[in-house]
Amino acid sequence: MSSSFKRFFSTYKFILKLAYQISPSHLFFITFLQSIWGLTNLPVLYINKLLIDLVISAVGRPDWQTVARTIVLVIILRSLIEYIRFAMNRFIYPMESSLSRLLNAKAEILMAQKLNSLDVSTVESPAFQDKFKKIGREYNQRLWGMVQPISQIPNSVFTIISAAIALFTFNPWIGLAIIIFELPDVWLSAKFSKLEYALGERQATTNRLWGWTNHYLTNPQSFYENKILGTVKILTQKMNELAQQIIGERVKLDIKRSKFRSLAEIPSNLLFILLNSYFFILALAGKITLGSAQMLYQACTTLGNGFGMLLSNVNTIYANYLFASDFSWLLDLKSSERVKGRTPRLPFKKGIEFRHVWFKYPNSKNWILENVDLSIEPRENIALVGENGAGKTTLIKLLVGFYTPQKGQILVNGVDVQKYNIHAYRKILSVLFQDFSDYAFSAQESIGYGDISRLKNKQAIEAAAKLTGVHRFIQSLSLKYRTPLSKSFEKGVEPSKGQWQRIALARTLFKNGEVVVLDEPTSNVDPKAEEEIFEKIIRLARNKILLLISHRFSTVRRADKILLLEGGKITEQGTHDQLMLLDKKYARLFRLQAKSYQ
Fold first, then answer.
1. Which of 210, 252, 376, 527 shows a CA-CA span of 20 to 30 A to 234?
2. What is the CA radius of gyration of the chain?
3. Is the domain covering 3-332 a CATH 1.20.1560.10 domain?
4. How far is CA 189 from CA 161, 175, 310, 316, in A?
5. Smallest Cα–Cα separation from 358: which of 403, 389, 415, 412?
6. Beta strands in 447-594 (DSSP E)
7. What pLDDT, in 10s, does the model give residues 147-160?
8. Is the pTM of this model over 0.90?
9. Is 93 exposed, middle or buried (0-12, 13-18, 19+ CB in 10 A)?
């Protein structure tokens, strides 16, 4: 078996297994009802034949009343079958709708779990982003597009059997001819499914650009800037251009598909004209009854529809497989993060050490960090300063294990970070990034997520909030710590940027890690409040390692040691007083900033 077939069956098995795990009862009953539907085609064919033959046989006969009673009974039987089929449809739709929603919800959860389990370098790559966004656009219809046909296949199979019994008893070659004449359309469907998938691959980046443009137009955070800058016109124009490009290419493909499939259907239509003419000519010649001609006519149509439906279902499965295989690919991705290794021993006997560390991002030619050497003692607080782009945040990403340096080592408590179990290692880290999350849930959750094992410890959460000065704000809210932090919820509020930063800082401190890393933690807080917050943080972190990144020199001068990073290299280090006496770049930057406050 070729690798492509193996991939197809493994993907299909996975999706079907997923649907079965979600709700086996839904899957079973949908398939069962569809099977019953297909089985009812044969009695309907014979009932219609019987009705026509009964009516013709009774025309002009004196005892037509006797035949009329039989006709009424047959009509009642046909109506009963039609009612059963109608009722089954009533049940099939809500069950399919329910299973589809459950499947999509499960898929969304699996995607979120997988995304957050992958290493940062994989997730941040443009190629991954293109494919991930494509999966996000397609999975809600494509996964169900693989499951739904399997429940419809029994319907089409039994429809074919019902029609074939009627035709094959008359002439088996007729049924075979109908099947053969349906094949060109099926082949074209498969071919255009591949072309549609290839088009989706080509448009991945364009679709992602559409998503970002739409985000800037509809995201509430961009609302004010759009009004002030007047960017709505140019952004909507950009969306129109992207729409023309995306939709235009798809329209061309759809027209081409319609043209070729229309041509492919001509032979089968001609065959049906010939066969139906043949049946009714036989009836005129007295070779068969009119009811038989009608039954054979309907059987041809039913067989063609049934076989077309079967192959359409198979093709639908295949077409959706091409997209669902991306979903399967995502879930099969393996993270390069270390899940095995040592667990950090607490308390630290040694601190943090960078030994000749060199680093550049994937697909980049330029070094971000060059031969960085630094050491931090246990229970020492360090301030890292430097201009934008100097490599400060990159250094933090290496420390927390998001990336691995190309050269050199990073030691924590005397052990290479690469030898730690990454999950155990990150438990000892309390890190606040510049791009922190602003959770729209309750204030208690937004802070408590710092340590989910203590999520219900309100006293500890309030203590963390008091450290950052946000407790008073939360207490003033209508629901206090139960207040949603978004106006999109009832009684919710929208904190200011400074309040959000205090909440995020409280969440970081609530974790109570052995190593505390703060990247611009008070950039949106006023200077007076910043002084108070840092005084508390330094006091709190006296028995920990504290690494602070800040552009405010009035704050960093409190640190035990200050490191100046320039162009990926540490050019100066020492206490504030030592660096001022050195009278180099740090001293110049400090005086320049101090001058702005005079």
1. 252
2. 35
3. yes
4. 24, 22, 13, 9
5. 403
6. 515-519, 545-549, 561-566, 569-574
7. 766 666 776 777 77
8. no
9. exposed
